[in-house]
Amino acid sequence: LQIFPTNPEQTVTSGSYKTVEVLRPQPGWVELNPDSLWTLFVDVVKEAVQVAGIQMHQIAALGLSTQRSTFITWNKKTGKPFHNFISWQDVRAGELTKIWNRSFLMKTVRGISSLLHFFTRSSQFLLASYLSFTTQHISLRLAWILQHITEVEQAIKEDNCCFGTIDTWLLYKLTKGSVYATEYSNAILALLIDFKDTNFTFLLSHNFGSVDAEIFGAPIKITALVADQQAAMFGECCFDVGDLKVTMGTGSFWDVNTGSKVHTSRKGLYPLVGWKIGKEVIYLAEGNASDTGNAIKWAQSLDLFTSADETSKMAHSLVNSGGVCFVPSFSGLQIPVNDPYACTSFMGITPSTTKNHLVRAMLESIAFRNKQLYDTITRDVGIEPTSIRADGGVSKNNFVMQMTSDLTNKTISRPASTDMSCLGAAFLAGLAVGFWNDKEQLKKLIRPDMVFKPQKEPEEYEPAMSNWIKAVQRSLSWYSQTSP
């Protein structure tokens, strides 16, 4: 959790951070405790305001950027959750996802949609013809909950069940139950809305009300809710068609602005609503890798290094990884591999392998996954970007940044502040209350910190990447539904 107070000049740099504990009660399950999350959220807001030297009543508006596709259900009457948040990284519905994607119903939907597209040329039918579920979509994880938690099923029958992603739940808590809503960027991955229906339904709102005065001592207008990756795109000022950014945080997320067009992917990218300002609706196409920052945290917990800041220097101390390969797959491998049962692994370890070799292999794996995602998104969308914008905690790692620049053969810029999800939410909230007048004004506020230009030809990495791909292949289908 992180909170940053921001002024019109975007000069307030103080903020507050707290780590949310991730729960893994069983293999493949990833959860967050809702009570802990709420307590941390309130504490972080209070601390950030105190550090900034301002008062609650001075805050003009609150913007929230939240993790997407992480959901919860709760009792409508009491507000008590029926279970923990089910994280976007959770793969417990992997078998259910496989069954649905191979089902006669899904094959029929895809076949009929393809036929209808042939006759109508409708982009909606083309989109449906490639419809495929992943464990990152909420729908099948929610189906798993309905199958296994009878309390939820009973509450639905009694019309006493609320469902929501983190944005909905925080809004519900902040307003003490008076506002139950979500917004475009979060709803789209919950499959709650039609891409082409920009009027949307009662499920969505832009009137988010105000924080109840009892919580922070003063009412605060809530003028922006936005999913984290869309917020990062907005914070990076990726306002033009073809603008491309990568956020390297818990996972690596590659997003491209597709303008007013919903992109129909043949490679597994998913279309998103980026944002809606007035009548303008901007769409994105996205691909991701789940395990980036959390793999680094895991390695730190094993004492491979003391601080993540050391890792770039450790990697640079060697000319290569000594044949060691790392496959980052705590939550399976996403596009273009698409295997929820892949395992995390180190391969090629010898008696001469050192911690530095292991760390370099880990950082190389992040860059290799970046290369895979870059190639997938540029070929599928049909763009040739002139540059890439990067943010997120892992973007502070110069080794990863330079290697990604080399592999993609593109210039990559890193902003002074890598917390672009926070900045994007602040920009949207500020536009709503007149802090800023338009998007052009926002562009002037972005301050680049460092620019990485290709220093090696991509071909120089082919032997190492080929070896890494071999390791990936050997890590596939490791787990199954019957795994202990």
TrEMBL record:
Q: Which residues form the Carbohydrate kinase FGGY C-terminal domain?
A: 245-432
Q: Can the keyword Cytoplasm be found in this entry's annotation? A: yes
Compartments, as annotated in UniProt: Cytoplasm
Say which domain of life the source belongs to: Eukaryota
InterPro entries linked: ATPase_NBD (IPR043129), Carb_kinase_FGGY (IPR000577), FGGY_C (IPR018485), FGGY_N (IPR018484), GK5 (IPR037444)
Fetch the Pfam families from UniProt. FGGY_C (PF02782), FGGY_N (PF00370)
Q: What is its EC number?
A: 2.7.1.30
| Protein keywords | ATP-binding, Cytoplasm, Glycerol metabolism, Kinase, Nucleotide-binding, Transferase
Q: Kindly tell me the pathway this chain contributes to.
A: Polyol metabolism; glycerol degradation via glycerol kinase pathway; sn-glycerol 3-phosphate from glycerol: step 1/1
State the Gene Ontology BP annotations: glycerol metabolic process
**Record function comment:** Skin-specific kinase that plays a key role in glycerol metabolism, catalyzing its phosphorylation to produce sn-glycerol 3-phosphate. Involved in skin-specific regulation of sterol regulatory element-binding protein (SREBP) processing and lipid biosynthesis.
Record's protein name: Glycerol kinase 5
Q: What is the organism of origin for this protein?
A: Anolis carolinensis (Green anole)
Lineage of the organism: Eukaryota, Metazoa, Chordata, Craniata, Vertebrata
